[in-house]
Specification:
single chain; 186 residues; alpha/beta; Rossmann fold; seven-stranded mixed β-sheet; 23% strand
Length: 186
Protein backbone atom coordinates (compact mmCIF):
# COMPACT_ATOMS: atom_id res chain seq x y z
CA UNK A 1 0.00 0.00 0.00
CA UNK A 2 1.32 3.37 -0.98
CA UNK A 3 0.18 6.95 -0.85
CA UNK A 4 -0.37 8.84 -4.06
CA UNK A 5 2.21 11.53 -4.73
CA UNK A 6 -0.15 14.42 -3.90
CA UNK A 7 -1.02 12.94 -0.49
CA UNK A 8 2.63 12.13 0.18
CA UNK A 9 3.76 15.72 -0.32
CA UNK A 10 0.76 17.23 1.48
CA UNK A 11 1.37 14.99 4.50
CA UNK A 12 5.08 15.79 4.41
CA UNK A 13 4.13 19.46 4.85
CA UNK A 14 1.72 18.68 7.70
CA UNK A 15 4.28 16.59 9.57
CA UNK A 16 6.94 19.25 9.03
CA UNK A 17 4.65 21.76 10.75
CA UNK A 18 3.98 19.30 13.58
CA UNK A 19 7.71 18.71 13.92
CA UNK A 20 8.40 22.45 14.12
CA UNK A 21 5.93 22.63 17.02
CA UNK A 22 7.64 19.73 18.78
CA UNK A 23 4.66 17.39 18.44
CA UNK A 24 6.60 14.69 16.63
CA UNK A 25 10.26 13.78 16.96
CA UNK A 26 13.20 14.81 14.80
CA UNK A 27 13.40 11.77 12.53
CA UNK A 28 13.16 12.24 8.80
CA UNK A 29 9.52 12.83 7.79
CA UNK A 30 9.74 9.95 5.29
CA UNK A 31 10.38 7.61 8.23
CA UNK A 32 7.16 8.78 9.90
CA UNK A 33 5.23 8.24 6.67
CA UNK A 34 6.66 4.72 6.34
CA UNK A 35 5.88 3.95 9.98
CA UNK A 36 2.30 5.12 9.47
CA UNK A 37 1.93 2.89 6.41
CA UNK A 38 3.04 0.00 8.62
CA UNK A 39 -0.22 0.33 10.54
CA UNK A 40 -2.11 -0.37 7.30
CA UNK A 41 -0.03 -3.49 6.68
CA UNK A 42 -0.60 -4.66 10.26
CA UNK A 43 -4.39 -4.23 10.13
CA UNK A 44 -6.16 -7.22 8.63
CA UNK A 45 -8.82 -5.17 6.86
CA UNK A 46 -9.60 -1.63 5.81
CA UNK A 47 -11.89 -0.27 8.53
CA UNK A 48 -15.25 1.35 8.03
CA UNK A 49 -14.95 3.16 11.36
CA UNK A 50 -11.64 3.88 13.11
CA UNK A 51 -10.36 5.74 16.16
CA UNK A 52 -6.83 7.02 16.72
CA UNK A 53 -5.94 7.57 20.38
CA UNK A 54 -3.46 10.28 21.31
CA UNK A 55 -3.38 11.65 17.77
CA UNK A 56 -0.76 14.31 18.56
CA UNK A 57 0.80 15.58 15.33
CA UNK A 58 -1.27 13.23 13.15
CA UNK A 59 0.86 10.09 12.97
CA UNK A 60 -0.43 7.54 11.91
CA UNK A 61 -4.02 8.74 11.52
CA UNK A 62 -3.59 11.32 8.75
CA UNK A 63 -1.72 8.83 6.58
CA UNK A 64 -4.32 6.11 7.12
CA UNK A 65 -7.15 8.53 6.35
CA UNK A 66 -5.48 9.33 3.02
CA UNK A 67 -4.87 5.65 2.32
CA UNK A 68 -8.41 4.52 3.15
CA UNK A 69 -10.80 7.14 1.67
CA UNK A 70 -13.93 5.08 2.46
CA UNK A 71 -13.28 4.98 6.21
CA UNK A 72 -14.49 7.44 8.82
CA UNK A 73 -12.20 8.43 11.68
CA UNK A 74 -12.24 9.94 15.14
CA UNK A 75 -8.95 11.50 16.22
CA UNK A 76 -8.71 11.77 20.00
CA UNK A 77 -6.28 14.31 21.45
CA UNK A 78 -6.18 15.68 25.01
CA UNK A 79 -4.16 18.79 24.10
CA UNK A 80 -6.31 21.68 22.87
CA UNK A 81 -3.48 23.07 20.73
CA UNK A 82 -2.83 19.73 19.01
CA UNK A 83 -6.55 19.08 18.53
CA UNK A 84 -6.97 22.50 16.89
CA UNK A 85 -3.95 21.78 14.69
CA UNK A 86 -5.46 18.44 13.63
CA UNK A 87 -8.82 20.05 12.80
CA UNK A 88 -7.12 22.63 10.61
CA UNK A 89 -4.95 20.05 8.85
CA UNK A 90 -7.91 17.74 8.21
CA UNK A 91 -9.84 20.65 6.67
CA UNK A 92 -6.89 21.66 4.49
CA UNK A 93 -6.31 18.06 3.38
CA UNK A 94 -9.96 17.79 2.36
CA UNK A 95 -10.83 15.03 4.83
CA UNK A 96 -13.92 16.98 5.86
CA UNK A 97 -16.97 15.11 7.02
CA UNK A 98 -15.35 11.72 7.47
CA UNK A 99 -13.02 12.89 10.25
CA UNK A 100 -13.97 14.13 13.70
CA UNK A 101 -11.34 15.54 16.03
CA UNK A 102 -12.21 15.11 19.71
CA UNK A 103 -10.41 17.28 22.23
CA UNK A 104 -10.77 15.04 25.25
CA UNK A 105 -9.29 12.33 27.38
CA UNK A 106 -9.37 8.96 25.60
CA UNK A 107 -10.69 7.16 28.68
CA UNK A 108 -13.92 9.21 28.62
CA UNK A 109 -15.06 7.81 25.25
CA UNK A 110 -16.04 4.38 26.58
CA UNK A 111 -19.05 5.89 28.35
CA UNK A 112 -20.49 7.49 25.22
CA UNK A 113 -22.88 5.57 23.00
CA UNK A 114 -21.42 6.97 19.77
CA UNK A 115 -17.99 5.50 20.62
CA UNK A 116 -18.55 2.45 22.85
CA UNK A 117 -18.08 -0.78 20.86
CA UNK A 118 -18.30 1.06 17.52
CA UNK A 119 -14.80 0.91 15.98
CA UNK A 120 -13.49 -1.63 13.50
CA UNK A 121 -9.97 -0.38 14.21
CA UNK A 122 -8.24 1.55 16.98
CA UNK A 123 -4.70 2.76 16.35
CA UNK A 124 -2.18 3.89 18.95
CA UNK A 125 1.35 5.15 18.42
CA UNK A 126 2.59 6.83 21.61
CA UNK A 127 0.03 6.63 24.38
CA UNK A 128 1.38 5.01 27.54
CA UNK A 129 1.84 1.65 29.25
CA UNK A 130 0.07 -1.42 27.91
CA UNK A 131 -2.52 -1.41 30.70
CA UNK A 132 -3.56 2.14 29.76
CA UNK A 133 -3.66 1.34 26.05
CA UNK A 134 -5.89 -1.70 26.56
CA UNK A 135 -8.14 0.07 29.10
CA UNK A 136 -8.73 2.98 26.73
CA UNK A 137 -9.03 1.04 23.46
CA UNK A 138 -10.85 -2.22 24.26
CA UNK A 139 -14.22 -0.61 25.16
CA UNK A 140 -14.23 1.24 21.82
CA UNK A 141 -13.88 -1.86 19.64
CA UNK A 142 -16.83 -3.76 18.26
CA UNK A 143 -16.68 -7.56 18.29
CA UNK A 144 -13.97 -8.59 15.82
CA UNK A 145 -12.47 -5.08 15.79
CA UNK A 146 -8.70 -4.70 15.90
CA UNK A 147 -6.29 -2.71 18.01
CA UNK A 148 -2.97 -1.98 16.27
CA UNK A 149 -0.22 -0.42 18.37
CA UNK A 150 3.39 0.51 17.60
CA UNK A 151 5.78 -1.95 19.24
CA UNK A 152 9.40 -1.65 20.26
CA UNK A 153 11.90 -3.61 18.12
CA UNK A 154 12.44 -6.02 21.02
CA UNK A 155 8.75 -6.21 22.01
CA UNK A 156 7.43 -9.22 23.83
CA UNK A 157 3.76 -10.25 23.76
CA UNK A 158 1.38 -8.42 26.05
CA UNK A 159 0.20 -10.29 29.16
CA UNK A 160 -2.52 -12.74 28.17
CA UNK A 161 -4.36 -12.30 31.48
CA UNK A 162 -4.68 -8.54 30.86
CA UNK A 163 -6.00 -9.06 27.33
CA UNK A 164 -8.49 -11.73 28.43
CA UNK A 165 -9.79 -9.45 31.20
CA UNK A 166 -10.80 -6.94 28.49
CA UNK A 167 -12.22 -9.55 26.10
CA UNK A 168 -9.26 -9.36 23.73
CA UNK A 169 -7.39 -12.05 21.79
CA UNK A 170 -3.83 -13.11 22.51
CA UNK A 171 -1.24 -10.60 21.25
CA UNK A 172 -0.15 -11.20 17.67
CA UNK A 173 3.09 -9.29 17.21
CA UNK A 174 3.36 -8.35 13.55
CA UNK A 175 6.99 -9.01 12.72
CA UNK A 176 7.47 -6.26 10.20
CA UNK A 177 9.85 -3.36 10.50
CA UNK A 178 8.59 -1.52 12.46
CA UNK A 179 6.76 -4.04 14.64
CA UNK A 180 3.20 -3.77 15.84
CA UNK A 181 1.03 -5.34 18.50
CA UNK A 182 -2.25 -6.53 16.99
CA UNK A 183 -5.11 -7.81 19.11
CA UNK A 184 -8.75 -8.41 18.33
CA UNK A 185 -11.93 -7.95 20.39
CA UNK A 186 -13.53 -11.35 20.93
Amino acid sequence: MELNIVSYFALTEVFSRAQQRGWIGHQDIADYLDHSLGFAHAARNQPETAIDLGSGGGIPALVLIALWPQSSWTLVEASLARAAFLELQCAQLGYGERVEVCHRDAFSLKNEKQFAEQADLVTVRSFGPVQSVIAAAAPLLRQGGELVVSAAPDASPWPESLLVSYGMSVDDIVLTRPRFHRVRKL
